[in-house]
Amino acid sequence: MSLSVILRTSVFLLCLNIIFIGTSDGLSLPETSSYACVIGGGYSGLAVSRYLKQHGVNFTVFEAAPEVGGTWRFDPHVGVDDDGVPVFTSQYRYLRVNTPRQTMEFGDYPFPDTTPAYPSGTCFYKYLKSFVKKFDLMTNIQVRSLVTAVTWAGDHWKLTYIKTDDRQNHTVLCDYVVVANGQYVLPVIPMFPGLETFQGSIIHSHDYKAPEPYTGRRVLLVGAGASGLDLSTQLHNITEKLVHSHHLKYNQPKFADQYVKKPDIQGFVTNGVFFQDGSFEEVDDIIFATGYEFYHPFLDETSGLTRAGKYVMPLYQHIVNMRRPTMTFIGVVNRVITKVMDSQAAYIASLIAGKFQLPSEQEMLDAWFDHAYKYKVAKEINTVGPEMDQYFAKLSKEAGITRNPPVLTHIRDFNAKNRLDDLFNYRDYDYEIIDSHTYKRWYNGGGKGEVCPVEAS
Ligand SMILES: Cc1cc2nc3c(=O)[nH]c(=O)nc-3n(C[C@H](O)[C@H](O)[C@H](O)COP(=O)(O)OP(=O)(O)OC[C@H]3O[C@@H](n4cnc5c(N)ncnc54)[C@H](O)[C@@H]3O)c2cc1C
Ligand SMILES: *[C@@H]1O[C@H](CO)[C@@H](O)[C@H](O)[C@H]1NC(C)=O
Ligand SMILES: *[C@@H]1O[C@H](CO)[C@@H](O)[C@H](O)[C@H]1NC(C)=O
Ligand SMILES: *[C@@H]1O[C@H](CO)[C@@H](O)[C@H](O)[C@H]1NC(C)=O
User: How far apart are CA 70 and CA 90, in angstroms?
Assistant: First the structure.
């Protein structure tokens, strides 16, 4: 480790120590007969609803949109919907999941066996709806309820939401708050010189709905994360030219002739873009697939948390607000499979139902610092990625919940690599879990994108 890294690290950790001076007053948890408020009715909010219901906890889910489903619900609006509510979903046409469904299923609620490993986004949405029906969750879900403020009021939380149909504000008192409002809701576009002078259209992949509007156009696509790669496969053969700026090293598939790979961007002019190798391309449209930041605009300083776009801290087990342990989070974690959200949900419901006790604040802090020392930079504080299997084990041991087996981490790791090796065809395979360490994978002939044996609800 270089001296500068050590210095930066020490300064960072010193700052954290300062943050932690002053102790929390929220460590004793309320009675189990209490009321829990869940923010968001996407996969995570639905997952926790099921477990809360099974534990007999009284709770309400506040969902801003007219329907549950979060990012898996397609919404044709861009910006705000007909109720004036921000469109949080990033779903687009022809999307298929990019991780085998086995890494995304709710506990004890698998897809029907004949479902392909990579169903469409529409199919995943159908699956979420069937889950809601199966566990009768709608009775506890209040839609068109946009949470605008959550403040600590001494021994409970005050949660304010706006009913988006009649624009009335309401306040409820909650013993527990579960924050499950999604991690892909606030898109980020980096600053580039001259971007404001560019005359064509500019969107973030969050607002991308379908490839068709780009037919016959010259498009700049920026980024090669999950979204950037997926959009490259949708756009390479319908655009007049697809200029793809990124620095990912991967096995680039055989794109159509109009595909051009470019390095990072230097800057923009009215009709095009300069790259760092000095080259220039004229383009009509720009799509920034440049990622997201954490977004909790309804929290204020009374939460006791330190937050920025890339981190929320200190969270015990990436879940519990250590300063006020009656506030928990689902999905404030980087580089995990969706099933992690299901485990976090089970952990939270078990905590709220009084099935286990948190350690002392000092012990939680120690555990947190162990993680912080290992990951060092603030933007990695919420990373679980390489330790996902240990994370499943820890949650299960502490909360007495079902442990997700190592095989899921093996599948995650293989899939992540295989997507980069075989971008066009990695979804043409099915998977079967054999036991807690092994799985089987075989070619299914391709073309399974439309198959969805999930029963409509
Ligand atoms: C395009 C895309 C593709 C993806 N594909 C995969 C994949 O293939 N495999 C995989 O494992 N993961 C994938 N993911 C990750 C995905 O985020 C998770 O699968 C899962 O949807 C996370 O669920 P969530 O409930 O945490 O968040 P979301 O699905 O975002 O749900 C959050 C909910 O909270 C609501 N909400 C937000 N703010 C408020 C508020 N203030 N008040 C009330 N309600 C609010 C929103 O309306 C939304 O319904 C993908 C993500 C994106 C964006
Ligand atoms: C659940 O809690 C709410 C809010 O405190 C309360 O109004 C309601 O009566 C409770 N329901 C039950 C079944 O206890
Ligand atoms: C609701 O609260 C917001 C502030 O959060 C305020 O701007 C708005 O006027 C309120 N609406 C009504 C109908 O009271
Ligand atoms: C474009 O390429 C994709 C694979 O990336 C393929 O599925 C699709 O059918 C092609 N579309 C056209 C119009 O050729």
Answer: 9
pLDDT confidence of 376, banded at 50, 70, 90?
Answer: confident
Closest ligand to Cα 236: 4
What share of the chain in percent tops pLDDT 70?
93
d(CA 325, CA 357): 11
CA of 124 from ligand 4 middle (Å) equals: 22
Q: Where in the chain do CATH 3.50.50.60 domains reside?
A: 3-186+294-408, 189-288
- How far apart CA 249 and CA 252 sit, in angstroms, is 8
The 3-state DSSP class for residue 74 equals coil
Give strand pairing partners of 59. 36
* pLDDT above 60 (res 21): no
Contact 157, 300 (CB under 8 A): no
pLDDT class of 31 with cuts at 50, 70, 90:
low
Look up the CATH number of domain 3-186+294-408: 3.50.50.60
Which three-class secondary structure state does DSSP give residue 183? coil
Nearest residue to 437 (alpha-carbon basis) of 410, 417, 407: 407
Taking the CB of residue 62, how many other CB atoms lie within 10 A of it?
24
Type of residue found at 7: L
**pLDDT at residue 15 tops 80:** no
CA–CA separation, 178 and 375 (whole Å): 26
Residue at token pair 């898109």: 187
Residue 28 banded pLDDT, cuts 50, 70, 90: low
d(CA 408, CA 396): 15
How far, in Å, are 158, 328, 391, 400 from residue 321 at the CA level?
A: 16, 6, 17, 20
Atom 10 of ligand 2, residue of closest alpha carbon: 58
Residues in the chain, total: 457
Distance 216 CA to ligand 4 centre (A): 14
The whole-angstrom separation of Cα 158 and Cα 175 is 9
Query: Which tens digit of pLDDT belongs to each residue from 287-325?
Result: 999 999 999 999 999 999 999 999 999 999 999 999 999
pLDDT of 24 over the 50 cut: no
Quote the ligand 4 centre to 71 CA distance (angstroms): 24
- Supply 80's token pair: 């705000």
Q: Is pLDDT of 166 > 90? A: yes
Please report which confidence band the pLDDT of residue 457 belongs to, taking 50, 70 and 90 as the band edges: low
Q: 189-288 sits in which CATH class?
A: alpha beta
